[in-house]
Amino acid sequence: MLKQHSQWMVTGLAIADALAVSVAWLASYWIRFNWLPVDPAKGVPDLSDRFLPLLPLVVLAHLIIFYRLRLYRPRRAGSLPREARDILKAFVAAVVVVILIDYAIPASNKISRQFIATYAVVGTTCFALFRLVMRVFLRAARRRGWNARTAAIVGSGRNAQRLVHALQRNSWTGIQVLYFVDDREDEQSGRVRDIPVRGPMAELRRIVEQTPVDSVFIALPSDQANRTEQVLAALSTTMADVRLVPEINPTYAMRPNVSQLDGIPILSLRQTPLYGWNAILKRAFDLVVGALCLLIALVPMALLALLIKLNSRGPVFYLQRRMGLDGREFRMFKFRTMRADAEAETGAVWAERADPRRTWIGAFLRRTSLDELPNLFNVLAGQMSLVGPRPERPEFIERFKEEIPRYMLRHKMKAGMTGYAQVRGLRGNTSLRKRIQHDVHYIRNWSLMLDLRILARTVTGVWFSKHET
C-alpha cells in the first residue's frame, strides 16, 4: 500500500514537473522575443515552427535527468537548502542536454543560443521556485495530518526518546510514532513520553504485524547494539521501511555523514563542511571579499604602520605561530602591539588588558581589533578564512586539548579573522569553554549566509566594542 501510494506521488510530481518545464519553455520564448533585442534581419521565429515541435523532447530529457539525479525520491527528512541545491544541479544538467539536442537536430531547425541562455535563467528560477513552493505546501499539509506516516521505535531509552522529540519538533516530516517496542519491566514501562511501550522485544515481529506501521526506527542504546541483527531478522518479513539510529553522543559528532565503500556503510563523525562545492564557494568568497577589504584597508594600514614605527623600535608586523585547519601550523600576521622584546623573558602568555609591555598605539589597536587587519594576508594566502574559529597558539593548545572537551573539533574548520564566538561577545578574558561551544555550533551549522551575518556583526559590534583579544 505504501509503495503504491509512493508511485502515485511520483507520477503526480512528474506530471507537475512536465507542466512546469513546458511553462518555463513558453515563458522563455515570450521573454526572449518580446523583452530582449531581436535582430531585424532574422525577425521573430514562429513558436510553432521550431519551439513547439522540440518541446516534447525537451520535457522528456528533463524528466529522465530528474529521475537519474533522484529528484523523485522521498525527502521527508531532508532540508530545503539541500533540495534547492539538488534542483539546481539537476536543472543545469538538463539545460546541457537541451544544448546537445539542439546540436543534434538539422541546422534549419536549430534554436538560437540567446534563447537557450534565456531558458537556462528563466527555467532554473521558475522550476526551483515551483519545487520549493510544493515542498513548503507539503510540509504545511503534513503538519495538519495530511499524507502522514506512522512509525514504531525499537527501544525506549534516551536515544529513542531523543528521536521522538526530534520528530515531534519537526512535524513537517509527517511521521507519527505509534509505539515503542522494548523489554522494560519497571512501573513506567506502560508509556514513555505519552507513547505506549509494547513488548517484549522477542515478540517484535508479532507486534508489528498486529499493528502495522510505515517505518520502524531501530534506536537501541549502545550497550544493546549486539541485538541489532536479531531485530533486523525479526523485521525481515514486514513491509515497513527500516531505519537505523545509532546512539552517538552528539557532543562528539560534528555534521555526521554516511558514505559507502563497496557496500559497507561508514559513518563519519568529524567531517568538515568544507568539501566539494562548499570548499570552492568559501574559498572564492574569501578571495573576492578579502581582496576588496585589503584594497579598502591599504591606506589605513599604511598609516597604522607608520604610527607603530614612530612609537617604538622594532618591526611593524608581528608573526605568531598559530594552528589552523586539521592542526596545521602557520605564521599569522598581526600589527605589533608590544615592545619588540616583550616575550624574550616570559615566553607565550595569555594576553591581559593592562599589560605593561603594550605600547600606547598597541593598546588602541587591541581595543579596536585593528591589529588583526594584516590577517587579510593570511586569508589571501589560504591559511585563514574571513570567518571561522579564531586560531590559537600551539603552546596553549597542548594544554587546552587536555582540559577542555571537544577543543580539537574547532580545527575541522579553517581559522578565521572573526568568528561566531566573537560576535556573541566571547572575546578576550571570557569563558574558553563557551567559546568552544560556539565554535562547534558554527561548524555544525555553517553556511555562506551565516558568514555574511557574522561579518556584518563584526563591523558593527566587534571592531567598535571595548573588548580586547
Question: What are the SSEs and their pairings?
Answer:
Layout: H1 2-34, H2 47-68, H3 80-104, H4 113-143, E1 149-154, H5 158-169, E2 175-181, E3 191-192, E4 195-198, H6 204-210, E5 215-218, H7 228-234, E6 241-244, E7 257-261, E8 264-268, H8 277-311, E9 317-323, E10 329-335, H9 360-368, H10 375-380, E11 385-387, H11 394-403, E12 416-418, H12 420-423, H13 432-444, H14 448-462
Parallel strand pairs: 1-2, 1-5, 2-4, 5-6, 11-12
Antiparallel strand pairs: 3-4, 7-8, 9-10
Helix pairs in contact: 1-2, 1-4, 2-3, 3-4
Outline the structure in words:
The chain is flat. The chain folds into 3 domains: 2-143, no CATH class; 149-247, Rossmann fold (3-Layer(aba) Sandwich), CATH 3.40.50; 277-462, no CATH class. With 469 residues, it is an alpha/beta fold. The chain contains 14 helices and 12 strands. Helix content is 49%, strand content 12%.
In a few lines, what is going on in this structure?
By secondary structure, the protein is an alpha/beta fold. It is built from 14 helices and twelve strands. The longest helix has 35 residues, at 277-311.
Roughly what percent helix?
40-55%
Termini Cα gap: 62 Å
Order of helices and strands: HHHHEHEEEHEHEEEHEEHHEHEHHH
Q: What does the main sheet amount to?
A: 6 strands, mixed
Mean pLDDT: 79
Question: Count the helices. How many?
Answer: 14
Strand content: 5-15%
Rg is: 29 Å
